Amino acid sequence: MKSYLQAILAIARKDLAAEIRSRELVSAMLVFSLLVVLIFNFALDLDKSARENVAAGVLWVTFTFAGTLGLNRTFAAEKDRGSLDGLLLAPVDRTAIYFGKLISTLVFMLLVEAVVLPVFTVLYGISLFNISLFGVILLGTFGYGGVGTLLACMAAQTRTRDVMLPILLFPVTVPVMLGAVRASTGILANAEWGEILTWINILVVYDVIFVAVAVMVFDYLIEE
Amino acid sequence: MHSSTPKPLKILNIISILMFIVSLGLVFFYAPREAVMGEAQRIFYYHVPSAWLSFVAFGVTLIAGIAYLRTNDHRWDRLGIASVEVGIVFAVMALLSGMLWARPIWNTWWTWDPRLTTYTILLLIYFAYLMLRQGIEDPDKRARFGSVYGIVGFISVPITYFSIYLWRTIHPAVFGRNESETKMSMEPQMLQTFIFCNIFFMVLFVTLLWHRFRLESNTARVEELRMRASNA
What we know:
Number of strands of chain A: 0
Number of helices of chain B: 6
Strand content of chain B: under 5%
Structural class of chain A: mainly alpha
Structural class of chain B: mainly alpha
Radius of gyration of chain A: 18 Å
Distance between the termini of chain B: 21 Å
Largest interface: A-B, 32 and 31 residues
Largest sheet of chain A: none
Order of helices and strands of chain B: HHHHHH
Radius of gyration of chain B: 21 Å
Shape of chain A: globular
Order of helices and strands of chain A: HHHHHHHHH
Distance between the termini of chain A: 25 Å
Helix content of chain B: over 70%
Oligomer: heterodimer
Number of helices of chain A: 9
């Protein structure tokens, strides 16, 4: 068990270290997110009340698109450099690779989200500093990253690579989007807690089911 | 050798064609005109079996995927891809026939009600399945990835349906009228026609699936021979 956890952390640390050194991925995700927020500003010409209705939606679309960038890079880099073989030679359960990658992807996404939130608050004039909102963002990111890591592993090994991931990912993550946006909208609008809780439950159920499925099938995705 | 059509399949071909002709007669002449919806209701006889059989098809792919991952027998993978393609055909037929029905009855080609929305997402998942397979050359990898995505895709559908349904009941549809409340009066002749058409579609499904499966098997055999010839 201990070596399993150590393996997970080692993989996560490797990705994080590589990123700290190059700073390519997070900066790309960040700039992209800000651009998406900007584009939405022009695409949806909103007055104050309309902005409050769509704020959660715009936020999550931004996270989704930026997340796709991060997910693509997670496995593509391994495939290109051939370091996946090195990982596979390690005498550890293959699912450790899944969790290690998941952790590093989550860290990147959460970093980007942490920067986008204040920017969003300023640009949209809506305060997004809310503990419950942070909780929902965490749950949603976890679900999205959980399925995304699994599917990114597949997408990285196809011919069409980067384009393949959104095609595989978006239809399957509809419950995450719906749950996260509905819960976020409810929290921002100070809706009654019962309703918000329903959506949070959906997020939790989704997260549990899909991470479990991912753990069960991940082995099959990286055998040679 | 699997080059000639096996006898049971030939019989199925004939049964399918005969049942189709009989169903046309039943649907257009035997079944009475429906009181509320008029002639447009006749679409249901083809629309409903097409829809639920597409679900069966995708369920077959789920099972085939699990079976392939456990046994590594490529025949399961061939069943999986065959079933997805037949399922997509049935799903598209169901969607199009549904739209043709909706236009005169609800006065719109499309609504975003939970069932329809989930069905569209389902279709997109299986388009993605086909695209995934096309992007992989190694047959083992293709079979493995197809199996995994077939499993992940199918499992997501109930949760997706439930979340969209929840969303629409908490925030009722913006289109005013609640379309899913459309009533239909059922008479015995209609029930008989309906049952017959369901059985016809089940036969059709098995026939098409079998044909597509044989096509996939033969393709694999050709590939094998080609590789052997080029290596010799």
